[in-house]
């Protein structure tokens, strides 16, 4: 894998570290970043040495301030259409990863940035985070799954509030609503995510992948079907 223009990728102790790296633009999600992420996530998917992934943003102001508005608002419609299709590919790729993903969140987590965080399995935030999905106020819809992932994570009522009114949440509110798992001091964010990742790495990887698969696979099934799925996966894990 070559070097990337918009992200940094490192691998250490079974952990894949992905850093969104456009700090001067608050790590805005550009077409280039989408392509870079696609490449690195594809590599991670095929790499058994990577047991867990941490995604973070470079700089001290943002995890990601959403789609690159300069690029987005000037893109001709054909390019926009291609972009939306590719975004869909990226979210399918996120969903297809068997390894757990941890989002290390600080500063602004807006639009596509929040959508990336919602594709992660665990969200750990510093106290300074501002979450928001401003898309509807911009005359568009969240283009990377936000209308579907948000209600699955925090429920219908909170999701509609954020989507329809543009309501922003700070870390403690996000914690209370179940959008984040933990809030930790900013100087502990990286270490906490690393500790969680190392704990996951210490577990049997088949059990970890199986648990993730059972949870997501069961969400859209009846309880009876989901229990059947759990049984099948548990048998495979035990083999
Ligand atoms: N796209 C491109 N550049 C961005 C950006 C974005 N989303 N957000 C910030 N930047 C750039 C600014 O243009 C600025 O660059 P310059 O120094 O070259 O002028 C730099 O980052 C720093 O930003 P600010 O000076 O604005 O910083 P601030 O602290 O005053 O404000 C902010 C921070 C409130 C997050 C503000 O930057 C902002 O409102 N950004 C836009 C947020 C947004 O609406 N994102 C799009 C969401 S919609 C989406 O993501 C679409 C989708 O899914 C399809």
Structural class designation: alpha/beta
What proportion of the residues is helical, as a percent range? 40-55%
Indicate the mean pLDDT. Answer: 94
Ligand roster: acetoacetyl-coenzyme A
- The total count of helices amounts to 10
Q: DSSP strand (E) fraction?
A: 15-25%
The biggest sheet, with number of strands, parallel, antiparallel or mixed sense and barrel status, is:
6 strands, mixed
Q: Could you give the count of β-strands?
A: 10
Describe the global form.
globular
Radius of gyration: 18 Å
Describe the overall structure.
The protein is 49% helix and 17% strand. It has 239 residues and is α/β, with parallel strands linked by helices. Helix 1 links the parallel strand 2 (15-20) and strand 3. Helix 5 crosses helix 6 and helix 9 runs antiparallel to helix 10. It starts with 6 loop residues before the first strand and ends with a helix. Bound molecules: acetoacetyl-coenzyme A (CAA). Acetoacetyl-coenzyme A (CAA) binds next to helix 2 and strand 6.
Overview in brief:
The protein is built from ten helices and ten strands. With 239 residues, it is of the alpha/beta class.
Secondary structure elements and pairings:
Blueprint: E1 7-12, E2 15-20, H1 31-45, E3 52-57, E4 62-64, H2 69-72, H3 77-96, E5 101-105, E6 108-110, H4 112-119, E7 122-125, E8 130-132, H5 146-154, H6 156-165, E9 169-170, H7 171-177, E10 182-183, H8 189-202, H9 205-218, H10 223-238
Parallel strand pairs: 2-3, 3-5, 4-6, 5-7, 6-8, 7-10
Antiparallel strand pairs: 1-2, 8-9
Helix pairs in contact: 1-3, 4-5, 5-6, 9-10
The protein binds acetoacetyl-coenzyme A.
Residues 25-26, 28, 65-70, 108, 110-112, 134-135, 138, 140, 142-144 line the site of acetoacetyl-coenzyme A.
């Amino acid at each position: 894998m070559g070097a990337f223009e918009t992200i940094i990728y490192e691998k250490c102790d079974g952990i894949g570290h992905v850093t969104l790296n456009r700090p001067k633009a608050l790590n805005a999600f550009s077409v280039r970043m989408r392509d870079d992420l696609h490449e690195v996530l594809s590599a991670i998917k095929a790499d058994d040495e990577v047991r867990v992934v941490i995604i973070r943003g470079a700089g001290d102001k943002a995890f990601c301030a959403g789609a690159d508005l300069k690029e987005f608002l000037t893109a001709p419609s054909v390019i926009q259409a291609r972009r939306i299709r590719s975004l869909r590919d990226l979210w399918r790729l996120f969903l297809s990863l068997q390894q757990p993903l941890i989002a290390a969140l600080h500063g602004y987590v807006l639009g596509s940035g929040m959508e990336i965080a919602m594709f992660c399995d665990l969200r750990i935030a510093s106290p300074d985070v501002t979450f928001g999905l401003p898309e509807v106020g911009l005359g568009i819809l969240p283009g990377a799954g936000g209308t579907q992932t948000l209600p699955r994570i925090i429920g219908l009522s909170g999701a509609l509030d954020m989507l329809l009114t543009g309501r922003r949440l700070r870390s403690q509110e996000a914690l209370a609503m179940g959008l984040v798992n933990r809030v930790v001091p900013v100087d502990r964010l990286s270490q906490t995510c690393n500790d969680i990742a190392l704990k996951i790495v210490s577990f049997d990887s088949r059990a970890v992948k199986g648990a993730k698969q059972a949870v997501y696979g069961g969400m859209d099934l009846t309880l009876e079907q989901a229990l059947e799925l759990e049984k099948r996966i548990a048998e495979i894990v035990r083999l």
